[in-house]
Amino acid sequence: MTDNGKSIDVYLYTDGACSGNPGPGGWAAILKHAATNVEKKLSGGDPNTTNNKMELLAVIKGLESIKQDKRYRVHVVSDSQYMIKGMTEWLPGWIERGWKRKEGKNLKPVKNVELWQRLHELSQQHDVSFEHVYGHRGHPENEECDRMAVAEIDNLR
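-> structure tokens emitted (157 positions)
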């Protein structure tokens, strides 16, 4: 399987969920080895968080679980435009401005900066690409991640 002509080593499917915002939240990741289809499923929760934090944490936990023995080509598939736009569009500007974002004519601290910094650090260890899928539209791994994340919320109640 390829992404822009490059073969993919690992597919990382992720989702985050929150009941209330803030409120109890869950994250989930499914890693699939492209050559063997071997899967690893991960999930967790937080009793007081936001949906955006859970979306970021899902990718962080997935990337953290990949062996560091070599540089892998990792294709992240997510329904979070927040995470994908952050990683593909906003990140260079944030770094250039010292982790500040533009708000009108002012600069404000990037929200969830510690998570963004960790995600950026992890993404530098591999060749990472991103793909947006629409949530709740029948994508099998996205639907499974959603079920896993919601189950983590239920476990917190």
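The first strand starts at residue 2 and ends at 3.
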